[in-house]
Amino acid sequence: DVNLKMPRNNQLLHFTFREDKQWKLQQIQDARNHVSQAIYLLISRDESYQFKTGAEVLKRMFAPALPSDLLVNVYINLNKLCLTVYQLHALQPNSTKNFRPAGGAVLHSPGAMFGALSGWR
User: What family name appears in the similarity comment (predicted)?
Assistant: First the structure.
């Protein structure tokens, strides 16, 4: 589960990872296959092909879907499963950019990480 409280409207947003979309550490084992498949899909398209929507490129991993101005990045850093949330918004031409990352470690268990990785061969 992911709970976010956004400063602009002070509303608490609640999301869960979809059960039909894998996100667990087992994906590391399949990373090469996913990259190979992505390369194949890109190569098999005509060079002039233009993606029409973001949905063609991005598969949604949350239920309900995140608001269009939020980006969530889940990644592994050393022995931690990390989650970073970005809020996107359009800038006026004369404005400055403010970058305030919000995130933290979702899993910090060296033993669990080692046990999961040692089983993959």
Answer: Belongs to the rogdi family.
